[in-house]
Amino acid sequence: TYAMHLEHILELMDKYENYHFVPVNPMERQDYNLFASESGLTLLISNSETPFMLEIRRPELSHACHEYLMRMAELVGYTGIRRTKIRMRIQELIQELRQS
Asked: Is 0.70 surpassed by the pTM of this model?
């Protein structure tokens, strides 16, 4: 199932130049995940022992979350050669999942 999810990410990256995927560093502990779309929907998902999901629909808050994620992605780099490396890493993960 996760391999199919990663394949879908690759399809979206092929189809939309403005679709960005920045892998999380597995060595850094993530207390939450933040997902924001340009359409105004934002999800905040906690990774705690009692997980919860918060849906943010207020345009100004959702826009601020989207801007934050774009700044974080710019620090990592998501265009040019970095985008190519991200795609290659996703393809490697898909192969690993398919072999196991």
From this structure: no
